[in-house]
Every structure is written in C-alpha cells, then in structure tokens.
Design goal:
The chain is 75% helix and 4% strand. It is mainly α and 269 residues long. Strands 1-2 form a two-stranded antiparallel sheet.
Length: 269
C-alpha cells in the first residue's frame, strides 16, 4: 500500500510538471526536455559504464543547434539527424535480439548514447513545432498514447497474460498485455482527432501504431541494458518508478519514428 501511494504521488508530480511545461510556453517545454535528456544520459552512462562527461557537452550542442538554430523548413540537417538516430535505434534492436554478450568500445557507447538518447529527446522536443506554431495537444496526445498503452498493457497482462513476450529480457511482459495495450491505445488515438485536427482520425491511429510498436521495443531495449548491467532500475530519481530513463524509454525510442510518420502525413496530405 505504501509503495502504491509513493508511485501515485511521484506519477502525479511528473504529469503535473509535464503538463505545466507544455501549457506554460514552448520554451518551458524545451528546457524541461533538455534537463530530462541530461538525466537520461547520466543514467545511460552508468548502465553501460561510459566514462567522462564529453557526451553531455555533445548532447547540449546538438540540442541547441536543432532546437534553436536549424529551422523546421531546413530539412537536410534534420533528415540527416533523423536517419542517424533511426540507424542507431535499429542497431540497438540488433543488440536486443542478440543472444551473445559483447563488449562495446567507448566510441560505440558514446555514439549509441548520443543518438539513441540525445537524438530521441531532440525529436521528442521537435514534434510539437508544426507550421511555426507549438501544437500543445499533439505532444500531449503522444504522451497519452504511451500512458494508455503502458497502463492497459499492465492491466490486461496481469488479468489475461499467459504467453511471455520476451522472457530472456523482460519476464513479466506478455503478448496478451502487449496486444491489449495497443488496442486501447488505437481506440484512444481515434478520438483524439477531435482535439488536435493537425492529424486526422486515421492518421492518429497509424501514428499510435508506430508509437506503440516502437515504444514497446524501446522499453525492451532499456530492459536489456539494465539486465546487462545487473540492475533493476536505471536510477532512483523518481521514487517508485526508478530513473528518468525508466520513465521515458518508450518515448525516446519512438520519437524519431513518430517524427518521420508525421512528416510523411504532411507530405502526402
């Protein structure tokens, strides 16, 4: 009971902080996710044993360039960063499905952290900027999709779960829970078009599918990192929830794929 109360209080504080930043101003939202990104990189460094602090500087420089200097209509550098981030994420999936443990070099750990975490946070921050406006309900809708998926995956998994999804990495996750979370997320997405017309109902459903699938993979990738490091949580900054990376692993991994999907919608509609 005490643990449930602690998790609930931490969760409420996190949601209030997030929504306050979104509705306060775009600068507040940018700053919040810059800080979240630094926290995630710090936890990643501890998980993989990456020494030094240069990755923090590299992330801040990259973040500053893409959030404040490069404009939305300057597609080439954005597409390059998106391609690099997606390529690194695909590399992380190879790592996820590999049965052999291997030692990564410092350069590999640096590049993976910079794009898997740093690139993910940058694209998560860039998603709401559409047509030179800050689309508050678009980014809130994406958060809601992740929360709905996570919540109902847990509920359905606990109630009906029988078939293990990936027992080698995450023994508690089931196929039933994963499918249940996706069904509720897709249903939620269809109705969210009433609040954010930038994306129509069918596009919301397609976006939800991309976010749920890639977000679930991102959750498994972080679970593999924790299992390799021999720890339960990435950190302890959020009592009852673990670390910041535990909280944002799905969103960070899904962000470049969501950004790509939204740009495909913009170009074909």
């Amino acid at each position: 009971m005490k643990e449930i109360l602690r998790r609930s209080i931490t969760g409420v504080i996190y949601i209030v902080l997030l929504l306050s930043a979104v509705f306060l101003s775009s600068d507040a939202f940018d700053f919040l996710f810059m800080i979240f990104g630094l926290a995630c990189i710090y936890e990643y460094k501890r998980l993989v044993g990456l020494k030094g602090y240069f990755i923090f500087l590299a992330y801040l420089v990259l973040w500053w360039i893409f959030i404040y200097i490069i404009k939305e209509n300057n597609k080439l550098p954005i597409n390059i960063l998106m391609s690099l981030t997606i390529i690194v994420n695909i590399g992380m999936l190879f790592y996820l499905y590999s049965k052999k443990e291997r030692q990564f070099s410092k350069a590999e750990k640096f590049i993976a952290g910079l794009f898997y975490i740093g690139g993910g946070c940058i694209f998560l921050t860039m998603i709401p900027y559409k047509n030179e406006e800050f689309a508050k309900f678009l980014i809130i809708g994406i958060f809601i999709l992740i929360w709905v998926n996570d919540s109902f995956a847990y509920i359905v998994g606990r109630t009906l779960g029988r078939t293990k999804l990936f027992p080698r990495v995450s023994p508690k996750k089931t196929w039933e829970g994963t499918i249940g979370g996706m069904v509720f997320a897709l249903g939620t997405a269809y109705f969210m078009a009433n609040y954010e017309p930038i994306v129509n109902p069918l596009q919301w459903v397609a976006l939800a599918a991309v976010i749920v699938i890639t977000g679930s993979l991102g959750d498994l990738v972080e679970s593999k990192l924790k299992r390799s490091a021999g720890v339960k949580d990435s950190g302890a900054i959020m009592p009852g929830h673990g670390g910041m990376l535990d909280r944002l692993d799905s969103l960070i991994f899904a962000a470049p794929f969501a950004y790509l999907t939204l740009n495909v919608f913009a170009n074909v509609s």
